[in-house]
Write a structure and sequence with these properties.
Layout (H helix, E strand, L loop, with lengths): L1 H51 L9
Keywords: Membrane, Transmembrane, Transmembrane helix
Length: 61
């Protein structure tokens, strides 16, 4: 009975370690994807602001 409890605890510990490493990797990956996406967005906005010049757009009826 003792070895079943120890084996169950060991199995639960290994499962938590594997799940924790996968979740940690996914959090890091999503963070870097967000950083790259933000940099691309800011670059595109800056390019549009510089390239756009003084053109005023007006809606005509």
């Amino acid at each position: 009975m003792f070895w079943k409890i120890v084996g169950g605890l060991l199995l639960a510990w290994v499962a938590f370690m594997v799940i924790g490493s996968i979740v940690g990797f996914l959090v890091k990956a999503v963070f870097w994807i967000a950083v790259i996406g933000g940099a691309v967005f800011l670059g595109t906005a800056a390019y549009g602001a510089i390239k756009g010049g003084n053109k005023t757009k007006q809606i005509r009826p």
